[in-house]
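Memo to structure team: turn this sequence into C-alpha cells by end of day. - J.P.
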Amino acid sequence: MTRRSDVLVLGGAGVDTVIHVPELPLPLADSYMIDSGIRTRAGQTGDFVALGLTALGLDTHHLDLLGDDPEGDLVRALHHEHGIALTALPQPAGTKRAVNLVAPDGRRLSLYDTTRARPGDRFPEAALRELATASRHVHVTITQPCAAALPVLRETGVPLSTDLHDWDGENPYHEPFAHAADLVFLSAAALTDPERTMRRIAERGRAEAVVATAGAEGAYLLVSGELSRIPAVTPPAPVVDSNGAGDAFAAAFLYGRLAGEPPERCARYGAIAGAHACTVPATRAEAIGRAALLARAAGPNP
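Reply from structure team:
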C-alpha cells in the first residue's frame, strides 16, 4: 500500500551545470576564464519544489523519469540526503540536464538539453493514479511527459497546481497545464499584460487562484476575479542567484494553502521564500525552513 503524502511533485527532476559569467547577455568571445568554477549539481524545478516543501515540514513524494547515468545518481543522492521520497522510473534517453549562466546581479539564462526525452514517454497510469490518490495535493511541472498525465490526474479529483514559468501567454504547449490546474503560478517576465493573461487562465480553466511573480516588483494575485499586488520582500542577504526563486515561492504558497491560510497570506509566504532563495548560490540546494518562514511572516517588514 502506498504511503500517504501531503504533496506529490510530478516531473522536473534533473541536473544543472552552473556557470557564473561576467555579464548577461554574454558578449561573443573566443573564451572566458571562469574563476568561480563550473559546477554540476542536482536540482531542477521539480527537485526544488520538493526540497522547499520538505524543508517546510510537508511529506513530499517526487515522481519522474531518470536515466541510469551519473546525472540520475546525483538526483537520487539529493533526494536521499534531504529525506524526499522518490519514485524514479527508467528513462533510456537519460536524465534531464541544463546549463545555467548566472550574472553577477543574480539573473540567469538557462540552456535545456531537449535530447533527454522522447515523444512517447509516459508515466504508467496505475502508478500515477496510486501516488496521486495517496496525496493531498499534486504539483505538476511542465516537463515531459507531464502533459499526458493531466487527464488521469483530473480523474482522481486531487487538487492540482502547476508553474508555467516564463510563458508568453500564447505558446500552446502551456495551455493544458494552465487550464487543468486549480492553482496556477507563472512569471510575468515575458508578459506585456500580466492581468490579461491571468484573467484568461481563470476564465478558460479551473484555477481558483492565479499568481504571477514579478521579481523585485513583487507578485500579482488573482482570486475570485479580484486582482491584488503582493509586495516584494527584502532579501535577508545579498542577492547572488535567482535560480529556484519561483520554485521556492510555489512551495511556500502551497505550504500556506495546505495549512488553510487565505491566498494573500500564502502569497506572502511565497514572497518570503522566493527572496530567501535569491540569497542562496546556485551551487547549493537549500530552502527556507518553517520556523524561519513563520518568523519573517510575523514581522512588520519581512
